[in-house]
Amino acid sequence: MVAEKQYTTQLQAGLGMIPETLELLRRWEPGMPPSALADRVIAEGVFARVTARRSRNLAAEMFAPRYLSQGGEPAKRIRRLLDRGLSHDAIVQLFFLQTARAQQILRDFIVEIYWPKYAAAASSVTKSDAEGFIHRALDMGRMGKRWSASTIHRVSGYLLGCCTDFGLLGPGVASRPIRRFAIRPEVVLYLTHDLHFSGFSDRNLISHEDWRLFGLEPDDTLRLVSNLTHDGHLLVQSGADLVQISWKYRTMEECIHALAKG
Fold it and tell me: What angle do CA 159, 91, 254 make, to 5 degrees?
């Protein structure tokens, strides 16, 4: 497991929450803190069937960790793509990426449980798979304190539910069917440039762990990034241990503009 962040129960604030995230993004403005965003959705009655407390929880515990990191840059970018008509499926995959980045337990569950079972042609992921994953994490000290049996039971359900919301799994209770899940070309373009403008070298961005969320090893990633050459987005030269990319877009805004045009 990647020893970066302690595992938390924060997924209880919201799983994929795709419709809710769309509503929050449409009402968020750059520089707006979670409290002000919550005030706005409450005043506008956006989530009419939930309490004001729940609306505040969605803004602070679900939306903020996923989309307001780096000064709100993820929210700014995805909001622009949403406004410019990027496909719903691609937007949802960006939600998936940001959620897994914010929630280490979900990231590791997908990389360590979902994709190996997918590769082995397993038919489903079970509640027992999720609970076993959590028990191993507890033994490795990934949580700040020991979780109770009821917490393990709840969080295992959150993991499966989140994977279902994002399309990796189908519906179910004790067992959920594995669905085909493949990264969209628009998301390849976005993630490649996101990593590039975050300071990763051409070689290191190809092997970045974010690609593993989509079941990709470095050779797979290199092939998909090289495919972007066909549409004139960049130029890739590779051989042996060399990867060199000639970049067309000078800023992430230029990349987003190209995505919107596509």
Answer: 135
Q: Are 221 and 207 in contact (CB under 8 A)?
A: yes
Q: Is 58 left (phi over 0), alpha (psi -120 to 50) or beta?
A: alpha
Over 19-55, what HEC string results?
HHHHHHHHHCCCCCCHHHHHHHHHHCCCCCCCCHHHH
pLDDT tens, N- to C-terminus, the chain (262 residues): 344 689 999 999 999 999 999 999 999 999 999 999 999 999 999 988 889 999 999 999 999 999 999 999 999 999 999 999 999 999 999 999 999 999 999 999 999 999 999 999 999 999 999 999 999 999 999 998 999 999 999 999 999 999 999 999 999 988 999 999 999 999 999 999 999 999 999 999 999 999 999 999 999 999 999 999 998 999 999 887 789 999 999 999 999 999 987 6
The pTM for the full model equals: 0.95
For 82, the token pair is 């949403």
Q: Which residue has the tokens 């993630």?
A: 191
**Do residues 137 and 105 lie in contact, with contact meaning Cβ atoms separated by under 8 Å?**
yes
